[in-house]
Amino acid sequence: MKNSILLAAEIRRHALIMNHNANASHIGGALSIADILAVLYERVLTLFPQEPTNPKRDRFLLSKGHACSALYAVLALKDFFEVELLDTYSKNGSKFTTHASHNIPGIELSTGSLGHALSVGCGIALASKRKQNYFRTFVLVSDGELDEGSNWEAILFAPHHKLDNLTLIVDYNKIQSLGNVDDVLSLEPLKSKFEAFNWEAVEIDGHDHEAIYNSLITSGRNAKPKVIIAHTIKGKGIDFMENQLLWHYKSPNEKELESAIAQLNKVHPIDQS
Amino acid sequence: MRTAFINQLIEEAKGNENIFLLVGDLGFSVVEPFAKLFPERYLNVGIAEQNMAGIAAGLAMEGYCVYIYSIGNFPTLRCMEQIRYDICYHNLNVKIVAVGGGYAYGALGPSHHATEDIGMLRTIPNMVVCSPSDPIEAKAITSISVNYNGPMYLRLGKAGEKIIHRSKNLRISIGDIIKYKEQDNSDTAILVTGSIADYAINYVNEKKLRWNIYTLPFIKPINKEQLKDIVTRHNELIVLEEHQKSCGVGSAVIEILNDLFNIGEIENYPKIRRIAIDDRFYSIAGDQSFLRELANLSLNKDNIF
Question: Is the confidence at residue A1, as pLDDT, over 60?
Fold first, then answer.
């Protein structure tokens, strides 16, 4: 069995190649969630890759649908579909659009317009409570996405209805579309905002797999929903991409891809198992 | 109409455990019986329609048949993107119920005038758009909506609309046009939707006009065969609606007829008069009939053939 560290490296490798081949944007935000996805899919979520709609599965919604290259990669690596299908990413006629598509096995909800998935996650978590099912619902949002007012409607709603089966993860990489989150529309103090809304809030290093695991493995206590504010680095793992707004848009060219893959291989050689 | 809706929904919910009603903190003295009978399938989400539409999508993904209920533009325009992307794109079993179509909440001002909703909702793929003309139609549509697995919009009136149909139980299917009055020797047909139908019927009766009268409980889809039949029988059509002229019911009828004409499915293109709101807001107070008149939603001689 792969461990989550190796899985994260493979997610990054695939996401880089997919974005290069497709000349697509958003590699920075895909790299920033690679570790979170790796821990979720390797160690936390109850999954049925051969039966992706099994009612007992945990539900994961990627609200920041533009980072879907990382999600497609982890689903392929976890055997939801053939890895080769990732080669069709963004190609004419492919199901693999560059925002997350529910037409792909393992993807619950199409996303791409920001501020949608947390409300849907509230509905799923509410249904789970009302039907006395015991799966968990996870929603991953970006930091910039929290500008959307719809999120705050849901942030009010979830604790009021004691949705402790709902876990929200904030990919707090500090950079949004046109600049630093702190400059565009500051979220701070974010943790105490969530606490004031009656969430159980924890802050972690979003690239520390043990910290990610420890935060994800338990639901909110005292009937509260849980939010994990994951401090991350946009472009994490590739030195020339880290913390650079440019990589919200730019696709790695041949030379940049080569350099990026070399950096990954240096730390995590390709898993031959 | 809202009473007919909620009573029918309660009847359906007695035998269907999947029916779930969400309200956006509106529905005083309407939704309480449902809430009392089915507390585990009812929730007031608060004044947060975007969240309500998203929650509805999530509930529907887990197997519920979800109704979201509010007034006028709030469960529609306010959360249009959630309706488009979360509900319709995923083709989820969510019914959007708006009370107060047209100028039903006239005196409350343009915030409460639901006069662009049909146009906005009928452009969205997978969406069925319903606009009952009286409580009998509202009841029939509610019953249909429970048994239809997909997104639907129910544009209701308010309360106290006159019953126009003689039969208490209409046998209609999605898309059907209802023949309210049809006789052979009439050259003019009026197609009407919503509670303004009552006005049209009274007008035709009082003036002793030889017009045939049809109500359109569905704006999308509209049964093309039935529309073709109407066009074959009449040279003049009047479409009356309490909605902007742009993208409304008259537009929908013309779009269908244009395409049928182009492929030779109809031989004679009728003269069509659209009576609808002429691309403007009305910002003065007035009840529904006052505002209808102000907006020239009238069958006066300037508007007809």
Answer: no
